[in-house]
Amino acid sequence: MLVSLTVGKVDAGVAVLLTEDKRLIEFPSILLPPDISSGSIVDITVARNHKSESDATSAFHSLQSTIFRTFGQRTPTAPILRCRNATQTSVVLEWDPIDIATAELRGLTLYRNGSKAGTIPKPTEVHSTKLSGLAVDTEYVFHLILKTSAGTFASEKLKVQTHKMTDLSGITITPGHMPAALRESLQVTVGRIGAKLVDTVRIDTTHFVCTEGRGPAWEKAVENNIPVVVPDWVKGCERDGRIVGVRGYYLNADPRLRQIGPGGSTQGSPQIPQQQQQQQQQQQQPVKSPLMSPRTEVTPPTPEKTTHEREPEDAAPPPPPKDDQSEASERSEPEKWPAPEPKSHAEEQKVRTEDLKPSAEESEEDSEEEEDSSGAKAAEAGLPTRAKPGAKHEKDDEAGFDDVTL
Question: To the nearest 5 percent, what fractions of the chain are helix, strand and coil?
Answer without folding.
Answer: 30, 20, 45
